[in-house]
Amino acid sequence: MNELWAVCYYTFRESLARKTFIGFFIVSSIVLAIMLLALNVDAVDGAIASLSLFGKEAEGIDVTVEKFVIGIESVLAGALFTGGLFFSIFATASLVPNMLEKGNIDWLLAKPISREKLLFGRFLGALTIVTFNVFYLIGGAWLILSLKTGMWHWPFLLSGVMITATFAVLYGFMVFLGVTLQNSAVTIMGAYLITFFSPFLFKRNEIYALLSQKIYQMMLDGLYYITPRTFELGKMVTETVMGQKVASWIPLWHSLAIGLFFFGLAVYSFKRKNF
Hints:
This protein is mainly alpha-helical and 275 residues long. Helices cover 75% and strands 5% of the residues.
């Protein structure tokens, strides 16, 4: 266990040295600073009495505190799901390929640690970096909005768990690409392509009419079932924040299984590699 946490700690420090962690932290801090210093809300009897941003008073505000808070948190959760994942993929894509570079991998393999623990520690390190930043922003925004409005909307915190789980799924696939191809750019493109095409695969039934042969439909179905369902996970994040009943948890379990499958392939490939 000590070896595992040592690799995790080493990954965390490497991210600090590369400034990716700090960049993520600074962006989150700017968003929180704007909410803390520029947003002023006066709530009376469950309704918004006055609202100002950067000192400019908003006019014609007729909304309950509950709708206001859930609306702000929904926007933040949606932005963090897309923008946060985009930045997280970029910030962590090089961790595995860099580890496998000549010199680095020779030094690591000389240590008394198995290859499984080495790769899993690297995975945990990347996940720790992203989890810290996600909950720093989600938790900070939740605390500021709650203190300013008096409404403590707990489901917003669950969106942080969903976003972190989505990143873990994508990172399992990225680790597989990093081990097999040892190329950061391809790893980034692979994760972005999955995220980009996920909405089209979700609505593949509407695309069937445009396809001339059955084989193309089968290919779309195959891609849908062997890739993480990031689009549906994004919808689940929004439903969770808005307090709506989640229609189905299958996309989450399916995506976690796919992420675990690709991470297992990465471990298998890493154990068989000669350096």
